[in-house]
Structure formats: C-alpha cells, structure tokens
Amino acid sequence: MFCLSLLILFKFYNFFYIDYSISLINMGMIDVGDKPESYRTATAQAVVVIDPSIMNKILDGNSPKGNIFEAAKISATIGVKRTSELIPYCHPIPIDGIKVEFKMEQNFIKIIVNVNSVWKTGVEMESLTGASIAALTIYDMLKPLDKSLTIESVRVIEKHGGIGDFHDKVGRKLNAVVIVISDTRKIEQDKSGKIIIDILSLNGFDIIEYKVLPDEIKLIEYELKRLCDESNIDIIITTGGTGLGPRDTTPEATKNILEKEINGIVESLRNYGQQRTPLSMLSRGVAGIRGNTIIINLPGSTMAVSQSLNVLFPAIMHGFKMISGQGHN
After folding, report:
1. For the residues 47-62, what does the mean pLDDT come to?
2. Domain with 309 in it: what CATH number?
3. Residue 319 has pLDDT above 60, yes or no
4. Pair (66, 118) in one structural domain
5. Which domain, by its residues, includes 185?
6. 3-state SS of 149-183?
C-alpha cells in the first residue's frame, strides 16, 4: 500500500513537473531581429476622475504636492523610457519623441501621451506605460484632497507604422515566376526558390513558372524577355548568379533587358543584409521593370533570400499599383 501511494505521488509530481517545463519553454521575448525598421507612432490616453470641487486648486497649482501637470509630464516621460524595465517582454527601443498633453473636462483629467520611434516594433506599450504612470502620479498628488479619485481607463487611441500600414490592395490576383540560376543545382535540390514560392504564395501570388536555368547570359536574357513580353507576368524573382564568380552573370543579363531600373530596391536589400552579414556588399543583384513586369535579382543562399523577402514585402505591393497608373493614393 505504501509503495502504491509513493508511485501515485511520483506520477502526480512528474505530470506537473513536465507541464511546468513545457510552459517555460513557450515563454520568452519575441525575436524581431529580421524585421525591418520603420517609423512608428502610438497615442495612449488615461482618464482620472476627480471631485469637481478641487478643480480650481488643480488649475492654480495649489495641490499639497505642487503642480500636478509638471510632475505628471516628467513621470510620463520616465515611464515611456523605462517600459522595457517594467514590462518583461517589451524590447528596449530607441525613443525619438514623447509628447504629453492634459485636458480638463467637467470632472475628469485626460492624459494623452504620444510616442514615436524608428524601430522594429510598435510603441503602443510605451505610450500606455507613460499614460499609466502619469495617471498614478496625479492620483498620488491629489489623494489628500479627493478620497473619491479613480483611474477610469487606460487605452490606445491611435497607432501607426510598421508593415501594417503598407498592405496595398491591387484589386486583382497577381502572378509570379521564380527562376533559380545555377549550373549545378537541380530543381529537387533547390531550397532558395522554394522559400521564394512560399513567401509569394503567402502574399497572394499565383506561381506561373518555377525553373532552374544555367549561368548562361543569353539564355537568362531570352527567358526574362519571353516572360515579360509574352506571358503578362507581374513579378519575376531570380535567385543565384549575383556574386563575383566568373559564371555569375544574372545582373548583366537582367540589365540588358530592363527598361527602367529600380535602384531603391537593391539599395534596401543590401543595406538590410549588410547589417546582418559583412558579405552582403558583394551581391551585385539589380531590380527594374520591363513592360509591366518587376524583375528582382536575389542572392542564391537561403539566408540571404529569407532576409531579402523580409524587406520586399509588403512594400513592393505598392509598386504594382503605380505600374497600373493608380499612383500613390
């Protein structure tokens, strides 16, 4: 009986130990290392409800602890800057600007905190923390005058920035071609092209062709011209043949058939890649337009392809609207 009890106890303990371990594995800060930086802004609001009878003392700066607005502005600024120290899974981020405003309406004070930054994640937590700390500061300073003080709400009232602001809808189904440039790689061995296909599919593209071509400049030229001129393709993405090797001719073949170059694309790709590997500067890929088709050369490595696609989407979608004459709106 004693042994049976020990066995049951051991199984009970082991069950909870494993469950707890699994929960720990799933915890952690989200990795944003591959996300591109962009301008982000968020505005949060906190509301402190007060007794209307103390309104004049507040406006005159005669609370027992001094001017509540100056103190709350300082505390909001500190709260924004120290958000990552207070909220464990928030990233420490560079803060470019903080604006704190107060509105007195009837029996409440509105605290409005706007934060902006150029970085990889949004700043709504920073604005919420700033508004919360400012509200708590006002509560602390007014509690000797008003025993009925309450903090009614803290919420985000507006936020912008990040990839969510650039999901342009073209209004039709887009199609794509993926070309792997390699003398030695077979289609069944290819990984880079399949990564491109997966990302294109996730962004709503139909894949019309997927093939491997050898590093032959005339053949690459012919295929690019055929696809642009005869097949009505929206985007062609090549992978491979962009380096310094004697057989790397993809950029030359592409330049020979382009009507317009889009230098900003490859500048962004190399800049993004250079922050992650010092070899990115050696990629010679080009990008441009022939007819209504966008052509982009990507390197051959799977890592470089994955990183490049992080930069391209969703911003590249705006290019299709411009090509069709829809402009920037």
Report:
1. 86
2. 3.40.980.10
3. yes
4. yes
5. 167-323
6. CEEEEEEEEEEEECHHHHCCCCCCCEEEEEEEECC
